[in-house]
Amino acid sequence: MHRTRRTVLASKSMEQTATTSDWSSDLPFGLPFTLDEYTARLARVRAAMADADLDLLLVTGPENIYWLTGYRTTGYYVYQLLVVPAEGDAVFVTSRLEGEAVRALSWIKGNLTVFMGDDEVAISIEAARTAAAAIRRFGYEERGFWLPPRILDAFRDAFGSDAGVAAGNILEDARRIKSPAEIAMIREAARIASVGMAAGIAAVAPGRTENVIAGSVFAAMMAEGGEQPAGGPYVVAGPRAAVTHMLPERAEVKTGEPVYFEVGGCYRRYSGSLMRMACVGPPSNAIANRAAVMIEALETMIAAIRPGVASQDIDRAGRQVVAQAGFAECFRHRAGYSLGVAFAPGWGEGLVMDIAEGNERPLESGMVFHLVPMAGFRGWGNMGFSETVLVTEEGCEILTGMPRELAICQP
Predict the structure, then answer these.
(1) In 3-state terms, what secondary structure has residue 258?
(2) Domain range for residue 131?
(3) What pLDDT does residue 8 have?
(4) Which of 127, 154, 175 is the last residue of a domain?
(5) DSSP label at 310?
(6) Reduced to 3 states, what is the DSSP secondary structure of residue 276?
């Protein structure tokens, strides 16, 4: 496997034009992070593999593959695999079409391709044997969506029914604390999301459709240098907003009804997100009260964040505010989740870390969360306000930047 020794800085200067046709030994479009950061990530993963006595780790999630290699594609709906041995060169398995992306975008370039009609099972076993001479135990991502059962069954057949070990926690733990360079990416994504949110709220008007407003959000984020979001933008008017993750479907905004926004900005595949609410004309007492409750829940959670506090205690702090207002049954969502690398269909890193009841893991400086106190009222709509926050040594820093209020738009 050829590896470049050139250090590539995470800046716009990396977005260079290819100057050579030999992509297997070059990085024609640069890397999102320095090579030192990538090699440090791989070393952390291998240290955890050694602790778990693993000879091999099968990496299948697009977020984890990107985090380790820089390789990114919307083609992850086609089978792909990164085989990471305890030592030596990692090996890709991709479609023949996506193999070009591996050669152009990843600092790890060893790749066996799969094409229509080829046997991806046999090629995956070949990749494993290429990466490691002896395989007693291999780890796999057990909680993701991207490992086909036939692949896992084939590995067990080839290396022993007890050889496979659930090991997704190795990657989740490695990604939980963000590096300074990652925080810079999330900070920019949060800024882009805030710009999009401001554009969306400014576009709210009676009779205007959700689609038109969402288009304003998307256009503003792309004009700011954002990328294709990992989800949304969610712009939902009136009672439809009570249906979780409802996308714009041409519904018109009506005077006196709330409009729910959830916007995720994206920069180098890192996300920053926020929720806000708008109302055309003066809000009713019920709307104003529900908005005030959810804002208080969010602010209570923010005030509780500091290193050492258990995840579930942050959830409880916000949930108690909502319960005291009589809306406990309407708060059906976890109170927050980790943010970082994301590909569609969602921008959250829920597998990495949740802010939720039952999670006793303490917060640590360098973690990033989307705090999402949100209540859905059947037949009426949704009410939610959120922020992207960075856990710091002193407490937390809010990365998103929009007024924390119910926006009142002129009829």
Answers:
(1) strand
(2) 12-175
(3) 28
(4) 175
(5) B
(6) strand
CB atoms within 10 A of CB 405: 13
Domain membership flag for residue 6: no
Pair 149, 277 in one domain:
no
User: pLDDT-derived band of residue 387, with 50, 70 and 90 as boundaries?
Assistant: very high
Residue 257 is assigned to a structural domain of this protein:
yes
pLDDT of residue 116: 81
Report yes or no: 90 and 173 within 8 Å, Cβ to Cβ: no
Q: Are residues 374 and 341 in the same domain?
A: yes
Domain edge (last residue) among 141, 157, 175: 175
The answer to which of 13-22, 99-108, 266-275, 366-375 has the lowest mean pLDDT is 13-22
The predicted model gives 207-230 an average pLDDT of 97
Residues 188 and 326 in one domain: yes
Query: 199 and 114: one domain?
Result: no
Spell 314-330 as b/e; 16+ CB within 10 A means b: bbbbbbebbeebebeeb
What is the model's pLDDT at position 51?
98
Q: Are residues 168 and 182 in the same domain?
A: no
Instruction: Answer whether residue 11 shows pLDDT above 60.
Output: no
Alpha-carbon span 343 to 171, nearest angstrom: 16
* Low-confidence winner among 116-120, 192-196, 281-285 (lowest mean pLDDT): 116-120
Q: Could you write out the DSSP letters of every residue in 379-398?
A: TTEEEE--EEEEE-SSSEEE
| Of 263, 254, 154, the residue nearest 219 (C-alpha) | 263
Is the Cβ–Cβ distance between 339 and 349 less than 8 Å?
Answer: yes
pLDDT digits (tens, 9 = 90+) for 15-59: 333 344 567 778 899 999 999 999 999 999 999 999 999 999 999
Amino acid in position 171: L
Rounded to 5°, angle at Cα 339 from 337 and 344: 100
Pair (157, 195) in one structural domain? no
Would you give the distance in Å from CA 395 to the centre of its chain? 23
Q: Are residues 135 and 182 in the same domain?
A: no
Task: Report the CATH number that the domain containing residue 98 is assigned in CATH.
Answer: 3.40.350.10
**pTM for this entry:** 0.92
For 102-119, b/e burial (b = at least 16 CB within 10 A) is bbbbbbbbbbbbbeeeee
Q: Tokens 């008017």 appear where?
A: 237
Supply the mean pLDDT for the chain: 92
Whose structure tokens read 């998307």? 218
